[in-house]
Amino acid sequence: xxxxxxxxxxxxxxxxxxxxxxxxxxxxxxxxxxxxxxxxxxxxxxxxxxxxxxxxxxxxxxxxxxxxxxxxxxxxxxxxxxxxxxxxxxxxxxxxxxxxxxxxxxxxxxxxxxxxxxxxxxxxxxxxxxxxxxxxxxxxxxxxxxxxxxxxxxxxxxxxxxxxxxxxxxxxxxxxxxxxxxxxxxxxxxxxxxxxxxxxxxxxxxxxxxxxxxxxxxxxxxxxxxxxxxxxxxxxxxxxxxxxxxxxxxxxxxxxxxxxxxxxxxxxxxxxxx
Amino acid sequence: xxxxxxxxxxxxxxxxxxxxxxxxxxxxxxxxxxxxxxxxxxxxxxxxxxxxxxxxxxxxxxxxxxxxxxxxxxxxxxxxxxxxxxxxxxxxxxxxxxxxxxxxxxxxxxxxxxxxxxxxxxxxxxxxxxxxxxxxxxxxxxxxxxxxxxxxxxxxxxxxxxxxxxxxxxxxxxxxxxxxxxxxxxxxxxxxxxxxxxxxxxxxxxxxxxxxxxxxxxxxxxxxxxxxxxxxxxxxxxxxxxxxxxxxxxxxxxxxxxxx
Amino acid sequence: xxxxxxxxxxxxxxxxxxxxxxxxxxxxxxxxxxxxxxxxxxxxxxxxxxxxxxxxxxxxxxxxxxxxxxxxxxxxxxxxxxxxxxxxxxxxxxxxxxxxxxxxxxxxxxxxxxxxxxxxxxxxxxxxxxxxxxxxxxxxxxxxxxxxxxxxxxxxxxxxxxxxxxxxxxxxxxxxxxxxxxxxxxxxxxxxxxxxxxxxxxxxxxxxxxxxxxxxxxxxxxxxxxxxxxxxxxxxxxxxxxxxxxxxxxxxxxxxxxxxxxxxxxxxxxxxxxxxxxxxxxxxxxxxxxxxxxxxxxxxxxxxxxxxxxxxxxxxxxxxxxxxxxxxxxxxxxxxxxxxxxxxxxxxxxxxxxxxxxxxxxxxxxxxxxxxxx
Lengths: 274, 260, 374
Description:
Distance between the termini of chain B: 43 Å
CATH topology of the domain at 64-230 in chain A: MetI-like fold
Number of strands of chain A: 0
Helix content of chain A: over 70%
CATH architecture of the largest domain in chain B: 3-Layer(aba) Sandwich
CATH topology of the largest domain in chain B: D-Maltodextrin-Binding Protein, domain 2
Largest sheet of chain A: none
Oligomer: heterotrimer
Order of helices and strands of chain A: HHHHHHHHHHHHHHH
Order of helices and strands of chain B: HEHEHEHEEEHEHEHEEHH
Shape of chain B: elongated
Structural class of chain A: mainly alpha
Helix content of chain B: 40-55%
C-alpha cells in the first residue's frame, strides 16, 4: 500500500478490493440477521398511531420512567462499578479471579432469575429486606427505586467488564509517574487513571444504559408493574402485547427511536465524530 | 418459622420461574398432532386440572396428549401465527372470540367452566384483610393482574361492580405472578382466581368476595381448524365437557358453566 | 567535576567509610531480590552532583532508579537523602522528581497542567501551581506550548515538559531514566546540551540512567557502572574512560583491555582473557609489579602483511575475523593469541587487503599501553 496519506477514496477502494469473501459473506448474513427483524417492525408499524401514542400520558409516563430509571441505574453502576472494576483490574487479593467470575454471573443468568434472587434478598420478607421492613416499614419492591435496583443488577456487569478492560489496558506507569509527583493512589486514580480510561468508562456506561433501558425480566419480577411507578417501556410493551400487538410494535419503536436519539447525541458530545 | 417461610419462598420462586419459562416456551413439536396424539393449548390457570384429565384421557383413548400452558392471549397469538395445535381452551371469552373470528376455530366455542376471583392472603393473614373493601385501605399492599390480561379485566369489572377502588402496588402480568407475590410475602393480598388459591395448597389463604360471580370469567374451549386429527380433538373437547371433566374442574375450584 | 571524597574510589562500593570529606546528598544501598536477578548496589551523589548509572541491558539500572524513587520495594538496604532516611517513605512523599524514559506525560492534560500536577498534589493552590508551571515552561522556552497536549509536542519539547514537570515539585533528588533514548539522533544532540545546562543549574543531586557512554560522559560528574546487578566501577567520566575495569566499559569507551600479572615492563595476560591463549605478553613503557589491567586504543594498533622490523616491542601474529566501518576509519577484529580490535584507515586496509581468516601482524608501541592496578 502506498505510504503517506492517500485520498479517502483510494484507501477505501484498496480496502474493498482486499476484503476476503470468507469474511464478507458471513458478515453480511450476520448484519441481515440483526437488521431484518427491525425492518419487519418498520413495515408492520401503523405510523399514523405513532404521534397520538407519544402524546398519551401513559406512554409518556412509561417513557420518562424508563429514561429516568436507566439513567439513574447507569449513575449507580458508575458509582459502584468503576471502583469494583478497579479492584479487579488493579489489586491482588485471594479470590480475585472468583470475584471477576461472579461479576459476570448476572450476564448469563436469565434476568427473571435475577429478579427472583433480588426478591429473596431485598423483598419485604427477604433476607435483608425483612429487617429493613421491620425497622423502617419501608419495602423496596413496587417502588421506582426497585426498578433502578433491578436495572443496576443486570446492567452493572457490562460497565464493570468494560471499565476493567480499559483499566487493564491502561499503562500503569502513568500512575507511577503521578505517584512520583506526589499524587496519592486516590488522586492518581481520579486525575490520571480514570481520565485515561475514559473511553472505556463511556463505552461501559452506554452499554449499561442501553441494557437498563431494555430491562424487563428482573424489573417485572422484582419491582412489579404499575403505571407511573414501576411500569417502564419494556413492561408496557409486554402488556400491550397481551391486547394489541400493533400497539406493542409502536411502543417498541418509540423506545428504539428515543434510545437511538440519546445515543447519537451522546456520541457526538462525548466521543466526537471519528 | 424462618426456615419454613424461606422454603415456601424458594418454592414460590421456582413456581415463578416455571411460569416465566412456560411463557417463553412456544409451541411443542408439530409431530404431536399426528397419529393418535393431541396438542392442547390451554390457559395457565388450567394447568393442574388439565394435566390430570389428560392422564385419564390417555388411559381411555390410548392416545398421547401434550399441553402448552400459557397466558390465553399468548396462545391466541401463537395460533394465529400457525402454531400446530388441536384444541384451544381460553381463560376468557374475548380471547376466544379473536381466535374464532380469525377463522382458526373448528365449530363454535363452548364454555366449560367459570372462574371467580378471590382474595389470596399469606397464611395467618398478617394484614387482617376481611373483605374486598379492606383492599382499598392505605395500610394494605395489594397485587392485582394488569388490565390487559383476563384476570385483570375481571378485577376491573369487579371494582366497577362493587364500587371499591383498590390502590394496587403492582399490576402483574398474569395471575400466577400475582399469587407468587403473596407466597413470597411481598404483598398482603392479591386478587386471584379461586382455582389459584386451591392450587396453592395451603401456601396462601383464600377469602371470598361478595358479588364475585358478577365478574366471573368464562372458560371457552374449541377444536382448532388446523388440527391434524379433528376426531381426537373433538373427543377431548367432549371429555372436558363431560361429567367427569366437570367433576375434576369443580374439584379444582372452578364453577360449572351452567351456573348464572 | 566532583571532588567528593569518593572520587578516587574505584570498585568496591561496600567499603565506603563514614569519614568522607563531604556528606553525600544521596547515600543509598539498594538490594532487590527478584528470583534469579539480584541487585545490590551502593549509589551516592554529592550535593549538585550528576551521577550517571551506566550499564548494559539487564544490569539493573532501571531497577536501581525505581528503587530510589520508591517504586520498587527494597529487600534490603536504605536510602538516605540529605541525611534523612526515606527508605520507608511512600513514593508520593519522597522529595524526588522523575523523568521517565518515554516521559509518561499525561495525554489528557495540557503541557501546563502536566507541570502543575505535581505542585497541586503537594498542596499548592490552583493559581499558584499554574503560575509555577508557567514559569518553568517559560524557562524551558515552551511558553507557546503551555496549552498544547503532549501528543502534539515534538520529542524534544516533550522531553523538556517532562523535565519541567519533575522539577516543578522542587525535588531534592532528580532521577532520569534514559532521558534521551526516545529522541532521534539529530534532536538528541540539541536536547542533550539543554539538559546538561539544566542539570547543572539544578541544585540537588541527580541520578541519570543511561546505556550511552557519550551521554554519561557529557552529562555526568561521576559515572557508576552497573553490571549484573552490582557496581563494577565508579569514578569521574574521564577516569572511567581512561581506566576501564571491565570488558563492557572497555568496549563502551573503545579500548582493548586485558587483565594480567606485571613483571617489570612485561605483562603476562591471564589465559582466557578476551579469548587470549595462555602466554600472551604485552610490553608497557614503565616497570611495576602485581596484578594489573593493560589497555590500549584500537587506533594505536598498526597492521602489517609482513612481520615488522624495528622498534615496536609488541608484535603479535593474528587472524582477521571481521572488518566493519567505524567513522572514517575501519575497525578490524582480530583473533589469535591476543584478540584485539584495530582501527586503520581505508587506505591502509586496501593495502593490507586481508581476506577473512588471513593472518596479519599487529603491533602496538609500548608507550600506548596504559597499565593500572587491578
